[in-house]
Design a protein that fits this description.
The chain is an alpha/beta fold. It has one domain: Acetylglutamate kinase-like (Carbamate kinase, 3-Layer(aba) Sandwich), CATH 3.40.1160.10. It is 38% helix and 23% strand. The longest helix is centred in the first third of the chain and has 25 residues.
Amino acid sequence: MKISIIKIGGNVIDFPDKLEEFLALFSKFPGHKILVHGGGVLASRFGESLGVMPEMVDGRRITDKDTLDIVTMVYAGLINKNMVAKLQALNVNAIGLTGADGNLIQSVKRPVKNIDYGFVGDIEKVNTSFLNTLFEGGLHPVICAITHDKSGQLLNTNADSIASALATSLAKEHHVNLYFCFNKSGVLVDEKNENSIIPLINEEIYTELRKENVIHSGMIPKLDNAFEALRKGVHHVWIGKAENLLLAAKGKLSGTIIERHRYDLY
Ligand SMILES: Nc1ncnc2c1ncn2[C@@H]1O[C@H](COP(=O)(O)OP(=O)(O)O)[C@@H](O)[C@H]1O
Ligand SMILES: CC(=O)N[C@@H](CCC(=O)OP(=O)(O)O)C(=O)O
């Protein structure tokens, strides 16, 4: 079975017009598909309005108890249910889920090393048979950035990591492509110049660009997860502008293609 995992970034979700436009493209995307979302921008803003200040380290949120409550309300509630309703209006039979629903994604609270991330989950298991059942029923899962530890604790989990874990688990039995859609044209040499797209990136280039701080913050988990997915059997990984999703699906040049090593070119 061919399955596409499509991750939509928080900056797109934050603009209703852009979100509508993206969901219309998603509705036209062919075949079995999963939509993964976070909503980090909205969660930060909502938290601030309640006096809970966001704290990020390398693109990942430090999540204390209050922050966990906020991200659960924002990701699993407000954003997820609105997206599902909008997709239903586009005749996509979407079903909104956290990692706790159907025991879809089990994770473990990240151990404290140099940094205590709090209630942040590292993914351990994905229930692919549940996903297969949903596909057989003609449903399109819309999965948010909340997982659980199977002992009653919800955990905040980076949405790029969720997309990658779903892709790698499904890749054991299916042909899986992974698309990271966000608000920029791809991985850029100069973040402020939308024309400075790096069309192909491999781990060697990534390591160099990270040292030079050309790649930083939220782009770090995105690329770490992209390489992890390719190492574990995902067929194709793309990072680019949400509005170019259908171009990417048709294999047309747009955004950044991720490759494991330089020799993947040949
Ligand atoms: N080289 C780079 N090219 C593009 N974006 C970059 C780069 N380095 C860092 N970034 C930052 O990463 C952000 C994307 O990460 P994030 O905000 O977590 O994504 P998302 O929109 O998917 O939630 C971009 O908006 C940009 O600010
Ligand atoms: C642990 C962690 O960092 N969780 C992320 C989950 C949401 C997310 O990834 O949202 P975007 O895709 O909009 O960035 C966070 O709370 O920001």
